[in-house]
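FIELD: query
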Amino acid sequence: MNRLSKLSISVALSALLIGCGGGGGGGGDVTVVPSEETEISGSASKGVIANGKVTIWAVTSSGELIESPIEEFITSEEGTFSGPTNLYLGQMLYIEVRGLPSGTTKMYCDYPSCGVFSANVESLLGDDEEHPDTNSNGLVDFGEWFFIDDTTFISTYARFKGPTAPIRVNLLTHMVSQSFTSIPSGSDLNGAYEIIQKKLGLSVEPDEMLPLLVKTGESLTRPQIVDNMLMQGMLTELTTNPNMNFAIEELVSFYKADPTLESSAVASSAISASAIALTQRLIDSAPNNVISDGVKFSVAGNLEDINTAFAAEEKRLTASELPMLPPNIL
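FIELD: result
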């Protein structure tokens, strides 16, 4: 974990004139309280990003980023990061999670297809690592890991709320953060997140979503699966580019043009139908000690309920009523 010296952090923080404003994800005014050394933590997911570089900048009261990052971390194999910090409680931050220039950062594919494996993939593997192409078809399929470099990143704006409030960086927070041409207020973020939560039928706002990683021995919850599948359903439904980076850029561009998500192209029933199809892949491949039979049943039922409600509201067919498409032939 690379971090700035305590001296440089102290100097940077003391230079901030921090005002009060709407709190990202919490709304209302925030009383900014100086903090003794505490801890910051969070997660990065589009899907999960392991061994990625987390860079954190502080925002001044005049709405500008401090030029030098005040914290830097490396994500774990589970896509999480944590460490000591001297940040102020209530401090507005801009956070990026990028692949390393060496190309040794890994991303978990939770999308129908995340591209093709690069020719140099074997040179990036550790001594005890198996080839990530588990079915040997050359394609990065749902549930497989692949390598990314520093051209791939996700981001968020967030207020530091202390050690018990992890910061979530994901595709939806990235979509929102990249749509702003200036530093947003807390109320700007809240408004954007509320629209997305309602449009997708999420159980929580985007900045509170837990990451999704199918890992033996760690059980997943129904809301965790449903929310992530709805997020991926949005990417599937609103983008066409098979390249992951370009698909993310396409989604950001779409959102910039329609931040209210009121366009007829954004059908909640279609997004949830895509989420249902994606979830079936997850359910079929995940062992019972990761997703229990009970959770699998409740996830399927929850997504069907969401889809049925949206279909009725939009006067569209439900996922079960849509015609079956022929399988892709590669």
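FIELD: remark
The first strand starts at residue 38 and ends at 45.
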